[in-house]
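Posting for a labmate who doesn't have an account.
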Amino acid sequence: MKKILLSAGIFCISLMANAQCEAIQTFSQDFENFTDGGFAQNCWTTNETATSPKATITTVSGTKVIQLYSFFTPAVAWYIVSPEVSTIDGNHQLSFDLKPIAGTMTVQVGTMANPTDYANFQNVGTAITVSAAQTNFSNIVIPASATQKHIAFKVVASAQHMASSLDNVSWQPTLGVDESKLSSFNVYPNPSVDRNVTISYNNTLTANEKNSVMVYSLAGAKVFETQMQKDTQTFNFSEFASGIYIMKLQSGSNVATKKLVLK
């Protein structure tokens, strides 16, 4: 694998101090507006130094990605930090693509109050081991916080010269119910103690439309998916650990998301 060497003069650059870096409500960043080379651009930041792991913008098959590269310092955590967002209200969701290039890495989603205070990084969900088995992560809802201001990724590699790519990072409002077409749905009991959860729809479908249910962990991994066989159906989630999940309910072309709490 080709090693990426950065000049000793390239250090962590905090562009957040730039007057142009104002808080934004949402973002959908594919990094195509970035320049190949050092990652800290367009109000995105990192804590790398000349001798630490690297985050660089690299063009792969005509597409720009963040290449995460462990360099000579495995087991050292480093961070990819988004621009400041105007609110972390529990009503937005994070999605991104994460693909292996060489070796093993883990990526922990989290938040930060200050883009240079890495000790303040707060985990959301469990760390993701980068693998080819799952490369797209979506429906990650960050818990509401009045103090956290940035979405961040904490990266740790298992050995020297390990690499992964991060792309298509999106922070958008959660999808709501289109009341004009999806008149109502119910999920009960919620929270559920015995893990038996009943889902009911009240919506008229065409012959080719279906009602479906998908459940995601807070780390964005899809842990359950099925099509409803009738308008009201009970599912048993006893194999899942206690905690909060995100349930995605689709009725025809209409989609809604809802938190599911399993005791």
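Reply:
Got it, the structure tokens are right above this. The first strand starts at residue 27 and ends at 29.
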